[in-house]
Every structure is written in structure tokens, then in C-alpha cells.
Amino acid sequence: MPIGSVVDISRVAHGHKHFLDRHDREFNNVLNDQRLTAEAQLHITANAAFKSRTGNLVKKSQVRVLRSGSKVIVRYSNSAPYARAQDGGSGLHGPRHSKYMIVGNPFLRFVWRGVPVVFRYVMHPGVKPTHFLQVAAAVGFRTNLVLLRDAMRRAAKSF
Question: What is the DSSP string of 76-94?
Fold first, then answer.
């Protein structure tokens, strides 16, 4: 008759299920759309290269967590119509590297060097990129990596 011992694996299985549940809770707490959006807006306002005049770009910046099977994608976006030009640059500083024409309807009126001027069109040089969304995403990635590591350590300790 062989000598052996009996191992009750049900406790290990129960502990593993408890660990997976805790893992999911911690993961979802870190990757929460509202928390990430608020964090991204803070990072955008802290960006020294980005100066907001109205706060509209900051308010319209959002973060969405997209889950597809085992993949998790964190998407930073902005719904303001001029957000792409501010983030990536436009005109001479953008992808086309050329000025662009702005046509008035019927005229463009503005003050230039203290004198009111009127033009039918102007050649706009564009805006320099501020990379406000790219910076927010990079800082958010580093921050969330630390938060996820801490969350996984807490989940592992409970096992």
C-alpha cells in the first residue's frame, strides 16, 4: 500500500477565485473613465507648453477605457473642433508645412498693431503644436502604471 497524503485543493481554488475577483475590482478602480478624465484634465492644465484662454479644450478632453476581449485601450480625445490644430500644430507647424488662406465673408476685421484693419483674405501661418493630449496620455500612462502595480500588489496580498 503506497504512502501518501491527501491535499484539499478546494481551499486553493476558493482563494484563487477570491484573488481574481479582487484583481478585477482593483483593475476597474484604476481604469475608471471619470477618474482618468479628471486626471487627464489636471495634466493638461499643468502642461507648461499649453496655455488655455477659455478652458474649453480642457473641459472637452475626455478619456475612455475600451475593452475588447483581453485588450484594454485607454483613449484620450477632445471634441473641440480646433483641438487637432492645437495638439499637432497647423499651417507651417502642421503636417502640410504651409500657410493657409482665411477668407472673410465679406471681410475680415481685426486690430493689428493698434490699428483697425480690413482684408478680404489673409494668409495664416498656423499655430505651433502644444501636444496637450499627448503629454496628458504619457503622464497618465506612467501614473496609471504605478497605480496598477500597487493595486495588483494589494490583490496578491489578499491571496
Answer: EEE-STTHHHHHH--GGGS
